[in-house]
Amino acid sequence: MKPQPTSRVRRIVQVAFLVLVLAIGAQFSVWAFAHLEGRSSEAARPPGVEGFLPISALMSLRLWLAGGGIHPVHPAGLAILLGALLASLLVPRSFCSHVCPVGGVSELLGDLGRRLLGRTWLLPRWLDVPLRGIKYLLLGFFVWATWIAMGLPSLRGFLDSPYNRVADVKMLLFFAEPSRLTVGVVAALVIASVLVRDAWCRYLCPYGALLGLLGRLSPLKVERDVTTCIDCQACTRACPARIAVHAATRVRNVECSGCQDCVAACPVAGCLAVRPPARPRLRLRPAAVVGIVAIGFLVVLGAFRLAGHWHSEVSEAEYARRLGEIRSPAYGHPGASPPPAQATGVRGPGSVPPHNQHSDPAR
User: Fold this and answer.
1) Coil, strand or helix: which one is 361?
2) Where do the domains of the chain lie, and which CATH numbers do they carry?
3) Is the Cβ–Cβ distance between 259 and 87 less than 8 Å?
4) Which of 81, 68, 71 minimizes the C-alpha distance to 159?
5) I want to staple 63 with a disulfide (CB 3.0 to 4.6 A). Which of 68, 81, 84, 314 is the partner?
6) What global pTM score does this model have?
7) What are the start-end ranges of the E strands in the chain?
8) pLDDT confidence tier of residue 361, bands split at 50, 70 and 90
9) Contact in structure between 293 and 258 (CB atoms under 8 Å)
């Protein structure tokens, strides 16, 4: 089916965010590798890279909700997480289908699969349903590990740790110097996304699970006008989440990503539309919904910037010092076995005194 103009609006916004993320990644790489090579960088560190630190952001969210304020290390990560939550509270799971770069790449890989193979695979229901449960299990594990098993002192210890202060660069090195296992996993995910549309988002992404559950509270959902519906089922065939849209009056399924592909596919004007509850005559145009999602996300980021909670407290001088020794055991994950220097009571290079992990003469 020929793409409708309303579908193109979402794709334009999605690609725009993807290009922005790629630009942030390129700038961050230039900045980080300059410091790793022991020289200064003309490029500045872009705070937006903290969007790739979801675990740190989840911990910062817990600290903030507990009254501990906004943690000064990687605050942009918390802003991006809150922006995603707000966008998905407005329109169910809409961050996934409008803003998330992984979601955008996943859709592009699915398009590639259709061009190469003529179609993407639909797994049988008996396999599809249990596989969808994996992302909820992963979400449950992360929530348990960061919100239940870890007390606030331990959580602060992680956020203040040498590892977390350079977690953005650790993440870069993870992909820049991948192990064979990493290459194999990434290759498997790419192939799976070519063969099965949105394989990562549908089966494995724990944050997609979180946003889907939050979307149950959204006031804006796709509704079907049963009086004008011709039961062609084009909406159901277009739905990437395989929701039976043609049989629903109001789509409340947690798998709905608010992409509005069903709305674009419907041949009857006004039959399918995003509407608030109990307002059958109010129909939001798909472009308006895209605008609501993007504006809701950007408002949160703008609020953090205006409040002075966008740039990390880790200074350029501290980064330069720490990145020079980032491969030392002192920068291992806090949950791993302590390095020998710490086991004997001697601090490793670049470690922070336990009584005051914020103190740093380099700043």
Assistant:
1) coil
2) 5-214+307-334 (no CATH), 221-283 (3.30.70.20)
3) no
4) 71
5) 68
6) 0.87
7) 221-224, 272-275
8) very low
9) yes
